[in-house]
Design brief:
The complex is a heterodimer of chains A (about 350) and B (about 230). By secondary structure, chain A is α/β, with parallel strands linked by helices. Chain A is built from eleven helices and 14 strands. In chain A, α3 runs parallel beside α5, α4 packs across α5 and α5 packs parallel to α6. Chain A is globular and about 70 Å long. By secondary structure, chain B is mainly α. Chain B has a single domain, classed as MetI-like fold (Orthogonal Bundle), CATH 1.10.3720.10. The longest helix of chain B has about 45 residues. Chain B is elongated, with a radius of gyration of 21 Å. The chains are: A alpha/beta (about 350), B mainly alpha (about 230). The structure holds adenosine-5'-diphosphate and magnesium ion.
Chain lengths: ~350, ~230
């Protein structure tokens, strides 16, 4: 279980030369374990896509080493690399399906190019479409599908070569929150069922929170923080991490040192207004909204909120257990190191 | 006007019917064979332009620049001048520089660069993400061309095909005017030199009809095979 499947050492990537050189990645070190769901989060332009493209050598690192499943990727020949890519497949924000082919053909595609006999490929593709819940769409063309369905086809396609690792570059960023959740649970399910290691690249903390066990925070080409998701959430120690964890970019000084602060994430449950209101009504506790980045979609709440609990310890505990009892809401206590 | 009316007389068709039929066949043969060979050359060149371009999957600055330059030279020469200036080459290749056979070589030489650019434009419409996805699955360059670029841009290639054929048809009519045969030849020899106005009318109508038919058929086929619309 705890074998390392991806090991990155001192990876750097510089685009361009001389004065125009852009250092997109700077001395990256990563260890991703076999069978885990690993998150890489960062703001736009942080270097996430470049990093993930370095993992399957779609982008050749300027220096450093990338070992996937025991093989040093940077020293493979073009031909060996093409072979190796079949076990490190990828899904994308814009799905990237072949628009002139049916879903079935799309899923067959990676098998066709690795010379799997047609009948065998077809059979496997139908199984995979079934696995992602789209067995009725085999003959449909991508243009006839919704975004979520397209991503499911892309996932089925990515699994066609029985990969060890599935790389997801902003795979849910083009989807609405409900669809995002369904795709994330699919990834979770596939991870559990097939044991495929999943690397999730995103700029949304909610995605990491939903499915990842560990996370690396990428800021300006460097990993500034790395560890278990709970730990990073509870105690973000760098500015970059705080910007991502605290909704609305709250400034720590606003919070008094003696009060407890919790981060509440809404995953499609009741909207957040009733929660705050019912806290006041049911518990008689008034909480302080320090920051919020939430969206209401069809009466369901998504996003997260930073709440300051009352100074009174009993009241704080009451509020906390009340929030914990809500469906589709997760709560984490946040520590400030002013 | 009166001499135009003879188009409807039996005598006209008796006199010119066979000539016109041959003219149509000659045009078909010239345009058909030229289109075939022009694509045989232009299609791979268009593919190479895409592959070796800055954002292509096998970038090669020098090759790309040289190829682009050669293609531009080919495109900048007016057809009639190109045809006359390569007569030596034409005779070397097919043994003659007159008639239908002699017209095919300059038609191919002038249409191939044009087709290369058309193909380049069609292929450039393929989403870069789809190419990246194919690469991420371990597809070779050849597989990406054959299984991604060409099928994904097929509706656009078909539309481009109609433009290419119509261009070659127009060139063929010009070639006809210097003795290559076909409808252009008839228009010049009978319609212009011998002042048979009805002959001019019929050839012009035939050319217009051909262009309309080609355009309609290719547009329909392109729309029918395009799976993005439905
Ligand atoms: N092919 C490239 N050429 C030059 N610069 C690039 C290239 N790809 C990415 N970059 C630069 O590298 C940085 C990181 O980009 P990217 O990895 O796409 O970020 P992210 O995916 O986190 O938004 C950006 O500054 C971007 O402009
Ligand atoms: Mg990106």
């Amino acid at each position: 279980m705890s074998d390392t499947i991806i090991q990155v050492r001192n990876l750097s990537k510089v685009f361009g030369e001389g004065e125009n050189a852009v250092c997109a990645l700077n001395q990256i070190n990563l260890d991703i374990l076999q069978g885990e769901i690993y998150g890489i989060i960062g703001l736009s332009g942080a270097g996430k896509s470049t990093l993930v493209r370095c993992l399957n050598l779609l982008e050749r690192p300027t220096s450093g080493s990338v070992v996937v499943d025991g093989r040093e990727m940077t020293s493979l020949s073009e031909k060996e690399l093409r072979q190796a890519r079949r076990s490190v497949t990828m899904i994308f924000q814009s799905f990237n399906l072949l628009m002139q082919r049916t879903c079935l053909h799309n899923v067959c595609f990676p098998m066709t190019i690795s010379k799997v006999p047609r009948e065998k490929a077809r059979k496997r593709a139908l199984e995979l479409l079934d696995l992602v819940g789209l067995s009725d769409k085999a003959k449909a063309y991508p243009a006839q599908l919704s975004g979520g369905q397209k991503q499911r086809v892309a996932i089925a396609r990515a699994l066609a070569t029985d990969p060890k690792v599935l790389l997801c570059d902003e795979a849910t960023s083009a989807l609405d929150p409900t669809t995002t959740n369904s795709i994330l649970s699919l990834l979770k399910e596939l991870n559990a069922k097939l044991g495929v290691t999943v690397v999730v690249i995103t700029h949304q903390m909610s995605v990491i929170e939903e499915i990842c066990s560990r996370v690396a925070i990428l800021d300006d080409g460097a990993i500034v923080e790395e560890g278990r998701v709970e730990d990073i959430f509870a105690n973000p120690s760098t500015d970059a991490a705080r910007r991502l964890v605290y909704p609305g970019g709250v400034i720590p000084e606003q919070v008094r040192a003696d009060s407890r602060v919790v981060r509440v994430a809404f995953n499609g449950g009741t909207s957040y207004h009733p929660l705050i209101a019912s806290l006041a009504i049911d518990c008689g506790v008034k909480v302080n909204i320090l920051g919020a980045d939430t969206r209401n979609i069809d009466g369901k709440a998504f996003g997260s909120m930073l709440l300051g609990l009352p100074e009174d310890k009993n009241e704080a505990a009451r509020a906390l257990s009340y929030i914990r009892s809500q469906h589709n809401v997760t709560v984490e206590e946040v520590e400030y190191h002013g | 006007m009166a001499d135009l009316m003879e188009v409807f007389s039996a005598a006209f068709w008796e006199q010119y019917g066979n000539l016109l039929w041959e003219g149509i066949l000659d045009t078909f043969v010239m345009v058909g064979i030229s289109t075939f060979f022009a694509y045989l050359i232009g299609l791979p060149l268009g593919v190479l332009l895409i592959l070796t371009g800055e954002h292509g999957i096998a970038p090669h600055k020098l090759f790309h620049r040289v190829l682009g330059w050669v293609i531009n030279v080919g495109r900048s020469l007016p057809f009639i001048i190109l045809m006359i200036s390569i007569t030596g080459f034409t005779r070397l290749l097919v043994g003659t520089y007159i008639g239908v056979k002699g017209a095919i070589v300059p038609l191919v030489v002038s249409a191939a660069p044009f087709i290369a650019r058309m193909v380049e434009t069609s292929l450039s419409e393929v989403d870069a993400g789809v190419i990246e996805a194919a690469q991420s699955m371990g597809a070779s360059t050849f597989q990406i061309v054959w299984k991604v670029y060409l099928p994904e841009s097929m509706p656009s290639l078909v539309l481009g095909g109609s433009i290419s054929i119509i261009t070659i048809l127009a060139y063929a009519a010009i070639a006809g005017s210097v003795g290559a045969g076909g409808l252009g030849d008839l228009a010049i020899r009978y319609g212009y030199n011998r002042k048979v106005k009805s002959m001019m009318l019929v050839t012009v109508v035939l050319l217009i009809a051909l262009v309309q038919i080609i355009q309609t058929v290719f547009s329909r086929v392109s729309a029918k095979i395009d799976r993005r619309l439905k």
